[in-house]
Design a protein that fits this description.
single chain; about 375 residues; Nucleotidyltransferase, domain 5; disordered N terminus
Length: about 375
């Protein structure tokens, strides 16, 4: 089937504070936006990455489907997971065919995964090989000591099943499961492409967690999820200005009450950003232990990246060039259907949803 005739998947990015939905149509000249929308979740629906109220999340998804007028015939859905239930590790194995690797990957995975192998789903992607990868049925010689680098991915079946049940309860059919860090990379690549000579860090700052994907020579070289996000900044404002969490969250995004000056909030925003940057520095240091390359620039995504000036704050704190991702920049859309100013405003929050929406069944 021609790629631009394939039936698209509806994507769902279920975060701790909101659900994002996207639908893309792939044509011979790239992607076109069919749907994009988002809806907030109740404050206690997902706490610290743990789903406390599956019913509330399913209800939010159903309300979003209705608000976006998603045709009932579109059922297949792609979603993603992240956090401590997910392991991503680059390993080195002897050169072999992809089929042989598929047969042996479970055994390989047991050496690197701190979970019972029966509790996880395992997948892999060959990222680099010393020479041509053998074809199916071919074997490397006994004295062949060539190797290849493989990205090993494992996710707990429990977390995948939970997300699948939530989505199914909303009337959709969960078909593809991805990881947040890879969806982040796909959303970035649609908009900017991947420079094979550059090393960049893609940083998705959610409410309670941050996904980090370091891209080196065009491929994922290091990933890390940290339990620090936009709430850290909100809490710094809340604590020091003696206001409620919701008011502090509004202040963070520049929506100030009468009598509150931007300078009153700026100090605490910087304090919260500094805490986040400590984790980024730690991540970059861990990465540097396994690579001779260094991160040259940072691209920000996620709801917290909607803060005015956060790119300058992060860049100054880390001494690196920093930019906020606009995933819509290379996607066509009908201005009679979509408000360009709104898309520009929410662009950082849409990266993962659009990255997921670009997925197809045979993608790796």
């Amino acid at each position: 089937m021609l790629p631009f005739l394939e039936k698209p998947f509806l994507s769902l990015d279920i975060g701790s504070s909101s659900v994002k939905l996207a639908l893309l149509k792939k044509g011979p000249r790239g992607f076109e936006l069919v749907n994009f929308g988002m809806i907030p979740l109740p404050a206690d629906a997902i706490v610290d990455g743990e789903v406390e109220s599956p019913e509330a999340v399913s209800e939010a998804i159903m309300n979003l489907l209705k608000a976006e007028k998603i045709p009932k015939g579109i059922k297949q859905c792609v979603f993603s997971v992240s956090g401590q239930s997910v392991i991503i590790k680059k390993i080195t194995v002897p050169l072999m065919s992809e089929d042989d690797l598929a047969d042996s990957i479970q055994q390989e995975a047991e050496q690197y995964i701190p979970f019972d192998i029966d509790e996880v789903n395992v997948d892999f992607q060959i990222v680099k090989a010393e020479g041509a990868i053998p074809k199916k049925g071919e074997k490397a010689g006994a004295d062949d000591d060539r190797q290849m680098d493989v990205l090993l991915v494992a996710a707990k079946k429990e977390i995948i099943a939970q997300q699948s049940e939530i989505i199914a309860a909303a009337g959709l059919k969960p078909t593809i499961v991805d990881l947040d860090v890879f969806a982040l990379e796909n959303g970035f690549e649609i908009a900017y492409g991947i420079d094979p000579d550059d090393t960049v860090a893609l940083v998705n700052i959610g409410a309670s967690a941050t996904n980090i994907n370091i891209i080196e020579t065009g491929i994922t070289a290091y990933t890390r999820d940290v339990q620090v996000g936009g709430n850290t900044i909100t809490e710094a404002i809340q604590k020091n200005m003696n206001v409620g969490f919701r008011d502090a969250d509004r202040y963070k995004l520049g929506h100030l009450d009468e009598g509150v000056k931007p300078s009153d909030v700026a100090t605490y925003i910087k304090k919260g950003v500094a805490t986040l940057c400590e984790e980024l520095t730690k991540t970059f240091d861990l990465y540097s232990r396994t690579s001779e390359s260094r991160v040259r620039r940072i691209y920000l995504a996620g709801g917290t990246a909607q803060m005015d000036g956060i790119d300058h704050l992060v860049g100054a704190e880390l001494g690196l060039t920093c930019e906020v991702i606009n995933p819509f920049r290379s996607i066509k859309y009908n201005p009679k259907v979509f408000d360009g100013e709104y898309l520009q405003k929410v662009a950082p929050s849409a990266v993962i949803a659009l990255g997921l929406a670009s997925r197809r069944l045979d993608d790796k």
